[in-house]
């Protein structure tokens, strides 16, 4: 599978690694739960290493640490974190990940395959699924006779390390002179982070519309453009800047940016992409699709300053 094609500016594709957690049932039987993680977050998949227990660990899902080529990484039992008991596995696997600048590893029963698809095949989870999963599922993927749950790995790690908890992030909310004249569109599939960004920007004085996916953002922009044209106005007279996550069900932030840049009447709209996944390759893709700024989620405290600078630069306001 070519990573180059995944980085194509007109590509709304991703690759998902499917893995299984075999859950031990009360009657002694086993149930196989199917899950997924974006390939872009995975460094490698290894056998279960020798684990060193962590003194005074407070969460039972933290198994300890292990040495991976001279680097000490934490390892987490995903089944335990999800409130399940993993069946004994002689061939268990460990998924080593990196996102938000942090490397960590997750114990699973097995890793089965890689699936390549477009983002529109990833469905947003319903409320029942969210409640059942401790609000840790960002998407649902149907493959043949089974359903894969795409886990929110950032949320799982943040529950164990408060420094990674985006819900606790302190975004600059100081009042911005003239902010009330600017309408910002925010797209993020995380309920908590979407609320934090919207609330903080509103406190700074901006008008904010927040949606849960790139597709919802695109539909909002199309509708607003049509309404503006009916009034003899331009879209950019009504919406002044887009702030979009990259990983989202239905349509990711890269495709949203590309569609905006390819559409007359929208193509001058300032766009900020933010994600836990701004690798060197994905940053290059962000540049290609036309993002004005790219911000990693740990850098969100300075978002208000970036918005002010970008509005001044792009809109001369």
CATH architecture of the largest domain: Beta Barrel
Report the sheet with the most strands, covering strand number, pairing sense and barrel closure. Answer: 5 strands, mixed
Shape: elongated
CATH fold annotation of the largest domain: OB fold (Dihydrolipoamide Acetyltransferase, E2P)
Straight-line distance between termini: 45 Å
Tally of separate helices: 9
What is the C-alpha radius of gyration, as a whole number of Å?
A: 21 Å
SSE pattern: HEEEEEHEEEHEEHEHEHEHEHEH
Low-confidence stretches: 1-7
> What is the structural class?
alpha/beta
Query: Tell me, what is the CATH class of the largest domain?
Result: Mainly Beta
Indicate the proportion of strand residues: 25-35%
Sheet with the most strands: spatial strand order: 8-1-2-10-9
Summarize the structure in words.
It is built from nine helices and 15 strands. With 317 residues, it is an alpha/beta fold. The protein folds into two domains: 152 residues, CheA-289, Domain 4 (OB fold (Dihydrolipoamide Acetyltransferase, E2P)), CATH 2.40.50.180; 151 residues, 3-Layer(aba) Sandwich (Rossmann fold). The strands form three sheets. The protein has a five-stranded mixed β-sheet, with no helix packed on it. A five-stranded mixed β-sheet has the order 3-6-7-5-4. The protein has a five-stranded parallel β-sheet with strand order 12-11-13-14-15, with helices on both faces. Strand 6 and strand 7 form a beta hairpin. The longest helix is centred in the last third of the chain and has 17 residues. The N terminus is likely disordered.
